[in-house]
């Protein structure tokens, strides 16, 4: 069977579509003329006839591919195994880029043209387009007559470009299939598929071994990583080993490397490096440990919790609040009280800003759809980002992810009825939250939605539950629905059709009065224990909460005095020292306020506490923006180390309360003890009720 590149594009659009599509929309979608589409449809009719499929054309309505799901799947499978004789322009440019990135010496134009079965003029035109795409990576295409073509730029830039094109063209299923299955295949036949060609930038065996090492280390991480970030790390490491073997060396600023050494991820990165050195019998430069650390820092995914007490998260929380405040004022919608939005933004922003600052590249395959469906919100969020991050050039891909967070917070929730759904959404928390919010808004039958990883797929119990995925799941035995993360009308039609087929009773639009689901003894016991830990932490903080007025003029003296007045500390000296060590890592003044936020975790802290110290003479210290500022209110938050997750979440909530609004900042700066205590207690009481409700619904 021969299928041209354009015919493949048309079939890709029609094969999963349940409704008619106008020829004009089809033409616009693949950037050709209506006349070209009509001509190609004749060839497509001959192709699909062998699969008992047909094209139904209705004047004024559009064209539709008609036939059973099994036959559609057969056609899909056949197309995926085709040997490509012709590439689309996008595929061709990707193949060209692969060839240039792989090569260690100039490549002749005629050789590239022969490989791609096109003219030299076409290759030359493609190279011009590639040049523009490579500008953000600081890579240039060098073309000289009689010399050939090569890429000029640093090793780090080439690796960033490799990771970017792999992330854009290879989905998680392609990756997993290659890593898990291709090693066992005896056949060495070359393949022309784009996914395999891209992953061919590294040896398959290297991918397999690296993935095994990352999987072992990943199991010991204190936080999960998104599927896409996990795969990005595997690809990064495999590329690194491949490039080191070819003599490619990567450099890192010495001062910045020393800064990374203090990060908890550095030890994990070193462990990975040591394992890989042992497996591949090679020396891996220390700079690579730094780059792996950056990847780990840029891969954090903490579901719905981010402990603001930890490291630089408080600074990120300030930025998140700034974004929410700006968008709220522009749209006239109440968002500042939305804790889910705030927590989701903090979770997302910390690694995202890290990736932006380190020029690690951001891919967002949904960008075009987001800009189309959420045009106004996209503009507002972009304006908000420019306002909150004036000195940072934030790419549209990142704006798109921020829009997902705000988009999931804007629709009003409807009362659900008991039906559970699993969502497999590999691109991260923003995408999955938006999809969950849209589903619960449009499908009120969903009582709960649980996000799971594609790696957890085979171990989960899907019986009796709705499984919705944003990526194809070819080896998954249970019924499931594949939808766009943006949840189109066609997707909703599929979801409702699924519910009708799998429900004994008709699907009801309004929620009936129903009994709460029966929970097991162990579930109830675990919930009560969790509530107990929340309550214990809240009680400790409220008991220790105090507003003090100090005559001291030096920061260290104020800290020492505050710690001496706490009965929840074993040794004031070691705790003050821990606070001072934390202060050295980054600024502690909150820009635009008179507040300074000191915090530390230490074994000599017996119970969590919050102390507010008012000083008569403002103290000059470094702000979180690294600029000097005056502070007359020192907030000192302490926690035991180690401490349970519930306690850390309580402290995280208190941190967000401090900067919740201009009014809250003014209150904490005022030093009015009774008002501060009442405000904090009421907020923490609301937090506890929210947690109890959340735990009872699990």
UniProtKB/TrEMBL annotation:
- Domain (PTS EIIB type-2) spans 419-507
**What processes does the entry annotate via GO biological process terms?**
phosphoenolpyruvate-dependent sugar phosphotransferase system; regulation of DNA-templated transcription
In which domain of life is the source organism classified?
Bacteria
Pfam short name (any one)? PRD
Q: Does the keyword Kinase apply?
A: no
What is the name of this protein? PTS sugar transporter
Tell whether Transcription is among the UniProt keywords: yes
What's one GO MF term for it? protein-N(PI)-phosphohistidine-sugar phosphotransferase activity
Question: What InterPro entries does the record point to?
Answer: BglG_antiterminators (IPR050661), HTH_11 (IPR013196), Mga_HTH (IPR007737), PRD (IPR011608), PRD_sf (IPR036634), PTrfase/Anion_transptr (IPR016152), PTS_EIIA_type-2_dom (IPR002178), PTS_EIIB-like_sf (IPR036095)
CDD domains in the record: PTS_IIB_bgl_like (cd05568)
Q: Which PANTHER family match?
A: CRYPTIC BETA-GLUCOSIDE BGL OPERON ANTITERMINATOR, TRANSCRIPTIONAL REGULATOR MTLR
Q: Name the keywords, alphabetized.
A: Activator, Repeat, Sugar transport, Transcription, Transcription regulation, Transferase, Transport
Any idea where the PRD domain is?
201-306, 311-416
Task: Enumerate the spans annotated as PTS EIIA type-2 domain.
Answer: 536-683
